[in-house]
Write a structure and sequence with these properties.
It is built from five helices and no strands. It has 91 residues and is mostly helical. It folds into two domains: 51 residues, no CATH class; 40 residues. It is elongated, with a radius of gyration of 20 Å. The two termini are 23 Å apart.
């Protein structure tokens, strides 16, 4: 029932991941530090030195994130309970 919308959402997500731009500078906008007259922090400078591809960011921060997997499994079990109550209730 929800398989086709899920497939469409995955397709749109992967297209956005593949063709989306990374930063405001890619759209012709200025960086935040220049617009707000803020100094660059050490964390920003370290992050600029270590460049990751979109796929590496996705794998590192999404697929390897235990909290996201916990939420996925909790959602699966919650769905099972909700469907069970909906189908077995004597309303």
């Amino acid at each position: 029932m929800f398989v086709f919308p899920a497939i469409i959402a995955l397709g749109v997500g992967f297209i956005a991941l593949r063709f989306g731009n990374d930063s405001p500078e890619a759209y012709g906008l200025g960086n935040t530090e220049a617009l707000l007259d803020e100094p660059k922090s050490e964390e920003d400078e370290e992050a600029e030195d270590e460049t990751l591809t979109k796929w590496q960011i996705f794998v590192t921060y999404v697929l390897k994130n235990k909290v996201i997997w916990l939420l996925c499994f909790a959602n699966i079990f919650l769905y099972g309970v909700r469907v069970g109550i909906d189908q077995w209730s004597t309303v």
